[in-house]
Amino acid sequence: MGTSRTFLHLCPWRTRSGISRLLTRNGSTRVWQQSGTTVSTRLCCQQHLLIRCHPSRSGGPAGRYCQQASASWAAGDVSKQEQRLLSRLYAGLIGGQRASLAECITLVESQHKRKRQLAQALLQHVLTHLKRQEEQNRGEPLAFRVGLSGPPGAGKSTFIETVGKMLTAKGHKVSVLAVDPSSCTSGGSLLGDKTRMTELSRDMNAYIRPSPTSGTLGGVTRTTNEAILLCEAAGYDVVLVETVGVGQSEFAVADMVDMFVLLIPPAGGDELQGIKRGIIEMADIVVITKADGDLLPPARRIQAEYTSAMKFLRGKSKTWKPQVTRISSRTGEGIPELWAKMEEFHKARLVSGELLDQRCRQQKVWMWNLIQENLLTHFREHPTVCQLIPATEMKVTDGALSPGLAADLLMKAFSAKQ
């Protein structure tokens, strides 16, 4: 290949037939003719932007898709270097590059104040792009969002790999947002979900992003919802969100997905969990996993118990009644039937209009969740409050002040005019 600036670059964008394009990055333009449609790819080696023009994705002239990559960043305090960064990330994201998607998610997960501002600027452009794409899709959502939860050892990772390989074989692009529990002492995380999905992680039509909980109960962080939007902008039409699975705290994931699936292992001591409303009332489908071999009889028994328990729950939807099914990720038994039920659920909710109403409601829920989180951050960083906290905590521990009165005093200091 030599030391020249021209080198081979594997284009992650694929046609509907699944053909990958092999490009050279040397600032040149390559044009192909396929099925009567010209696909032009322009590569800028100076800013390392990959900009593609494709009529089928833009819904109009080929040049319109290229113009999206040169988006103007409205924020007046964005430097030229930051503008180049955002333009590169945005162009790569909507072009379907997995590397750019990974960089974008890393940016929105950052706790750095300036990077959070840049992430919000990027997300605003992504929302505009998604809105335009949905309008071209007759107002229908671009992706099917599915939340997966269950106790440790339920087989969530194995289930996701089996379903993911089946979907990619059908032509879908699958994104997996797997949340791993963080250590309470060191704050670290093994991020082992990707290592358990070895075959799916090598699939070019799949993207797996493990993320640490960072102390968030239930494993759903504030950036999970934003990562879903980024995956949709990158062209993934199925987004699977796997959570830690700690019980009733999994209500959080139900506020960001279209469908909530609860995975339960057989003979795991969870027979009585069926009578607990908080565990299953948010589930649209309860899946009994590992229903094969010696575990098949207990799987049938657990299925009957959960089916009986869910009869006493009030349904969330007028068009769908929660169901209980059993599958085996090892043999693949029940997987196609389960996906058929999930597609039936998605279609029914979409036709009735409940899906769009649910997404609008979810956006408002997350707006207020972020407001509460930001208020707590500002409260802890308030100068007056920072001065009062040590003495106030001392009085609370000594019993001189009740926790409620101490909270009121700090809130008065926070709300007082400077």
UniProtKB/TrEMBL annotation:
Q: Which reaction does it catalyse?
A: GTP + H2O = GDP + phosphate + H(+)
Role, per record: GTPase, binds and hydrolyzes GTP. Involved in intracellular vitamin B12 metabolism, mediates the transport of cobalamin (Cbl) into mitochondria for the final steps of adenosylcobalamin (AdoCbl) synthesis. Functions as a G-protein chaperone that assists AdoCbl cofactor delivery from MMAB to the methylmalonyl-CoA mutase (MMUT). Plays a dual role as both a protectase and a reactivase for MMUT. Protects MMUT from progressive inactivation by oxidation by decreasing the rate of the formation of the oxidized inactive cofactor hydroxocobalamin (OH2Cbl).
The source organism is Erpetoichthys calabaricus
Q: Which GO terms describe its molecular function?
A: GTP binding; GTPase activity
Oligomer status and interactors: Homodimer. Interacts with MMUT (the apoenzyme form); the interaction is GTP dependent.
Name-wise, this protein is Metabolism of cobalamin associated A
Query: Which CDD domains has this protein been placed in?
Result: MMAA-like (cd03114)
What is stated as this protein's family in its record? Belongs to the SIMIBI class G3E GTPase family. ArgK/MeaB subfamily.
Pfam assignment, any one: MeaB
NCBIfam families according to UniProt: lao (TIGR00750), PRK09435.1 (NF006958)
Keywords for this protein: GTP-binding, Hydrolase, Nucleotide-binding
GO cellular-component terms in the record?
cytoplasm
